[in-house]
Specification:
Number of strands of chain A: 9
Largest interface: A-B, 91 and 91 residues
Mean pLDDT of chain A: 94
Largest sheet of chain A: 6 strands, parallel
Distance between the termini of chain A: 37 Å
Oligomer: homodimer
Helix content of chain A: 40-55%
Radius of gyration of chain A: 20 Å
Number of helices of chain A: 10
Low-confidence stretches of chain A: none
Strand order of the largest sheet of chain A: 3-2-1-4-5-6
Order of helices and strands of chain A: EHEHEEHEHEEEHEHHHHH
Chain lengths: 271, 271
């Protein structure tokens, strides 16, 4: 199998390493030539090159760069399949189908880290994780099967859902936590970060770990998934206001009830 | 050295294990007799008993139980020192000094986990961590020195600050993140937890890990540190509103700036 990976960051780089470990040939490129060179050096790629001869092209760039990236794709064969790894899907799939018709399959590996760039690539990043694919009535079954097989070959399990549902679910389980983590780290800055150094326990480090992620990817995700994210933010603001109110009026029973509901919800999602 | 630990949960239990590993004799008690029995079985305690003969009594119970716990302390010698491990300090220190005068030293080990009870006890919990002590002009220097020596013997470093400053700092670096984590888990419940099962990445697990902590301790902390916590919650709400506004108006530059500030603040505190 020959795969072309466009974008050699954490996700594209990890996919390249993982596919090569399974015997696939991986060519790739990055608009940042230094990142492509580094990816080659790290063994993420067999070669820097275009999509000529590739059975699958994977667009692994921030979601709002996907349309330009798709347009710039050269060498793509008539039978080749195109997929992406973006954290939002509705607009990406519309754009992908406009460019590639039923040979485009929207994808999103639910895996990542706060690190970025080819040096963060990890061949085991997708092992045991889920990859959400968002086919439409227009998607060619063979294209879907080929993308699913690629992800299964690197240890991932496939979940299919429609793109709109994907975006609502991910707004809740991923985009909202990122927004909250950034706001929390920002609030600590406003409250006097310097004087807190060395005084935080592990709770703060964990709660804000994802706020260490650099901006470009998340600016795109927040803008691209604005509607579902605003809904999720408002649900969160409601919970926070309820907890604040209970604290302000000294209502221990209400605080205990909110904590119990929160623990139960967490256990239902992650337990 | 003989130490009496009142409360055999995560913190009291871990301190018992750690002190015994250093050769101290540890007697203890818990209003939940089963917890005390379990602590004895796990080697947290040499014996179940009161403070007779102890040089230090450590009140390791939820902060709003400390006054009753202090009143119920039996067997305490006239030269014995009393300290606590509560997450808030101003009210605790006032109560402790009312009961024990200059022999009371407020303390707070900045260490913990989302687990609770004697089975969560870990002899290494305090190694390399900080313990904040909050002496007042009334505190006897020998009492302060004795409590500091106890914590150093289990690997902790001592930081001294006044109780009011402690409560403002901890409202920001600990109580706020806990409140946010509970609100986030609660919001996910409201948004449809069941349908999210298996679809969350590591970010959600980390961001809400501290929301797995059972209620009693945190109800007490939120109520006891209401003033500083409400200030911290309002700073957070301001950051969140700024981020929400930027998302709503599609202002990528503003989102990028907020993310950059958040990352910088996090690095200043934790880096």
């Amino acid at each position: 199998m020959k795969v072309c990976v466009v974008g050699c960051g954490l996700i594209g780089g990890s996919l390249g390493l993982a596919l090569r470990a399974q015997g696939a040939t991986v060519v790739g490129q990055d608009r940042d030539r230094a990142a492509a060179d580094r990816a080659l050096e790290l063994g993420v790629l067999d070669a820097i090159g275009d999509a000529a001869g590739a059975e699958i092209a994977v667009l692994a760039v921030p979601v709002r760069s996907i349309p330009a990236c798709a347009q710039a794709l050269t060498g793509l064969g008539a039978a080749a399949v195109v997929t992406d790894v973006g954290s939002t899907k509705a607009a990406v799939v519309r754009g992908g189908e406009a460019a590639f018709g039923g040979r485009f399959v929207g994808g999103h590996p639910v895996a990542g880290s706060e690190r970025a760039g080819p040096d963060a690539a990890d061949a085991r990043l997708f092992a045991g994780r889920r990859v959400i694919l968002t086919p439409t009535p227009r998607t060619e079954p063979a294209a879907l099967a080929r993308v699913a097989a690629m992800w299964r070959s690197v240890g991932a399990a496939i979940v299919e859902m429609d793109a709109e549902r994907h975006d609502r679910v991910l707004a809740a389980v991923s985009h909202l936590p990122h927004a909250v983590a950034y706001a929390l780290a920002g609030a600590l800055g406003a409250l006097g970060a310097e004087s807190f150094r060395g005084l935080a326990g592990g709770g703060l480090a964990d709660t804000t770990r994802i706020a260490a992620t650099p901006a470009p990817m998340w600016v795109d995700v927040f803008l691209e998934n604005r509607g579902p994210l605003l809904e999720a933010l408002d649900a969160f603001a409601g919970e926070l206001a309820a907890l604040r109110g209970a604290i302000e009026r000294g209502d221990g029973a209400a605080i205990a009830a909110l904590i119990a509901e929160a623990r139960a919800a967490r256990a239902r999602i992650l337990g």
